[in-house]
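Hi all, posting the design record for the shared folder.

TITLE: backbone redesign
STEP: 1 of 1
STRUCTURE INPUT:
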């Protein structure tokens, strides 16, 4: 059994463009998980009078556009892997879109303090500009964390993802 510590992926968003995701993997032992990421933007086109939504590579993203971040993780070893944790920061100049964090067989939590602590949505608190403590809103989220439940079988690949809107 391979005990995996964590996978941290860094997603970089810019005001007028979105770069690819660079990945930093921490695992014990190293090299048993292959991690790849994909950044796509939502494009809505009109086909025969119907709006059709598709995702295309996010080479350039303008304010107001939606971006999908996906992280794929594969157990490249011959032993099951467990204890897998994946963390994505919410890119600067973007806002997390509610209820879009997804990942099969995972527990999702969020941070409002740059990843120092995590809790399920609805359990996070922030101090408003008026000084009063309130329940955090998706616009307050700074990071998304997925904890994969159980073992990832040898050679198996899974994915997690979330959506943001460029401000």
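Okay, here is what came back for every position:
SEQUENCE:
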């Amino acid at each position: 059994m391979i005990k995996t510590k964590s996978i941290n992926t860094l997603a970089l968003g810019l005001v007028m463009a979105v770069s690819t995701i660079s990945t930093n993997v921490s695992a014990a032992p190293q090299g048993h998980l292959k991690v790849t990421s994909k950044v796509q933007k939502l494009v809505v086109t009109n086909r025969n009078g119907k709006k059709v939504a598709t995702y295309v590579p996010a080479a350039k993203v303008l304010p107001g556009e939606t971006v999908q971040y996906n992280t794929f993780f594969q157990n490249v070893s011959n032993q099951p892997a467990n204890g897998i944790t994946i963390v994505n920061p919410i890119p600067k100049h973007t806002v997390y879109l509610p209820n879009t964090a997804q990942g099969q067989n995972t527990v999702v939590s969020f941070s409002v303090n740059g990843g120092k602590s995590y809790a399920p949505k609805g359990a996070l608190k922030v101090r408003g500009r008026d000084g009063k403590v309130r329940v955090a809103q998706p616009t307050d989220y700074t990071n998304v964390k997925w904890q994969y439940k159980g073992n990832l079988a040898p050679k198996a690949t899974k994915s997690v993802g979330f959506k943001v809107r460029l401000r």
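COMMENT: Residues 10-29 have pLDDT under 50 and may be disordered.
Let me know if anyone wants the other runs.
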